[in-house]
Amino acid sequence: MVTLLLVGLIGTAVAAGYQKQATLDYTGIKITLDGKEITPTDANGAAVEPFAISGTTYLPVRAVANAFGLEVGWDQDTSTVTLDTPQIKKPTYITRTGSKYHNDPTCNGGTYWEVPYSTAVGMGLEPCDKCVH
Ligand SMILES: [Zn+2]
Question: How far apart are CA 133 and CA 130, in angstroms?
Answer without folding.
Answer: 8
